[in-house]
Amino acid sequence: xxxxxxxxxxxxxxxxxxxxxxxxxxxxxxxxxxxxxxxxxxxxxxxxxxxxxxxxxxxxxxxxxxxxxxxxxxxxxxxxxxxxxxxxxxxxxxxxxxxxxxxxxxxxxxxxxxxxxxxxxxxxxxxxxxxxxxxxxxxxxxxxxxxxxxxxxxxxxxxxxxxxxxx
Length: 167
What we know:
disordered C terminus; globular; 167 residues; 4 helices; alpha/beta; Rossmann fold; seven-stranded mixed sheet; 28% strand
């Protein structure tokens, strides 16, 4: 099922045994035709998973364009992780190489996932949430309580209409 524009879900994430946080996750679809409305969903985001379809071709300009847009709307302080999705398919090795190089050069984590098989999807969210917590000096979430704080995550780029981006 294709995304018809931005969508969101709320999830409780167990940060540790005694700490949890309520995530508001916006899937901005990443499709070029929705790009103008996606900008409004970046506001207030603490973290972004910038997702790319590993089965499609990709250029450094595609990556830089999405990263520029994200910087413009959420700034440098927002935690970012590069995600290559559809790792279960006919992976375009050039795209993997570009994303790996970009992540290394920009000191970002690059995680390959398969939403279809569930490979590394939880790890991508876990890595991002822990990165945000670290940037907030361990103040994310509520300790020893059933209540939770809210944290907003916004989904980033996607270079193909057939992929869904996350966080």
